[in-house]
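Long-time lurker, first post.

We've been arguing in lab meeting about whether magnesium ion would sit comfortably in this protein at all. Half the group thinks yes, half thinks no, and nobody has a model to point at. So I'm putting the question to the forum: if I give you the sequence and the SMILES, can you give me back a predicted structure of the complex? Inputs are below. Any interpretation is welcome too.
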Amino acid sequence: MSAAESGTVEEPLLQVERLRTWFPIRRGVIPRPVGAVKAVDDVSFTVHRREVLGLAGESGSGKTTIGRSILRLIEPTDGRVVFGGADVTALGRHELRLFRRKAQIVFQDPFAALDPVMTIEEILGEPLQVQGLAKGRQERRDRVVRLLESVSLSTDFLSRRPHEMSGGQRQRIVIARALAVEPEFIVADEPVSALDVSIQAQIINLLQDLRDRFKLAMLFISHDIAVMEYLSDRIAVIYLGRLMEIGPATEICRAPKHPYTLALLSAVPDPDPSRRRTRIVLEGDVPNPADPPSGCVFRTRCPYALPACAGERPALRPVGPDRFVACIRDDVL
Ligand SMILES: Nc1ncnc2c1ncn2[C@@H]1O[C@H](COP(=O)(O)OP(=O)(O)OP(=O)(O)O)[C@@H](O)[C@H]1O
Ligand SMILES: [Mg+2]
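Top reply:
Settle the argument with this. Predicted structure of the protein with magnesium ion, as tokens:
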């Protein structure tokens, strides 16, 4: 029996192992695959119970594809996703339904996420009904009211429809709907990027509060690494479908070890002048994920690249407790 099986070591809630999600590119009159967009290419990480892992990276780096592949809203091409000890990639239909109760997603756009013809009571009652979580109307209503309370909305909202609400209020409903089925894990995919800056902090604070109250683990996706530092325990930085660096959030932000992480942080104005002496401004475009550079995918935009970076793809190497970086240089940052 392994240590994990005997219960002596706490197993991660989620293990993503060598995940690949490629989208085939088809051409021709009778479409044939002529290549693939390597949206996620060999990505591994874990999320522990009650942990928030931030997933950072520019637009198109593969963040959403990772989140959706974990929940099997997109079928991964290769690799494994293990949740609570079970291989999600091998679940049948019935088991997948049970899994979807434990793992929920909150999307970026609260306007598109809610059915405009339904009332808030119907929107929040639906998952309770589908998952058989409330017996009868009264119990369902009681639970819906509690859900509203948990996202700081009053019962006045029960009979309203999404268009009668502000963006921030709608996102609270989207979050409440995700919580309805009492998940252990939430993928929050850019949950604040569609909102006014003044509202963003409120929603981040709400997520922080809910994570403690409901003992949630979360994959918090954002292109804004500054937003992420506050909420995340650890941060994973991804570029062109690959993991560049992963480690404790404050350390990643205070002392990045990968030039790409430094570049992301350089784009953020920092009120603390003692932090981040070096700055990198990224030049050039993100390469085509259907035809990524050999070796390190970041090397074509990296000011520290060496000829050797075009050779082997750099493996993640340990650079401190719980910290890993996929860069062969250890002499610049
Ligand atoms: N269904 C699809 N078919 C083909 N290519 C796709 C599909 N979905 C995503 N891609 C491509 O995969 C890559 C990763 O996309 P993804 O949406 O995961 O990135 P992202 O990091 O979430 O970006 P953003 O910050 O803009 O949301 C991109 O090159 C994108 O064009
Ligand atoms: Mg996305």
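For your lab meeting: DSSP finds nine helices and twelve strands in the chain. The mean pLDDT is 92. Whichever side wins, do check it experimentally.
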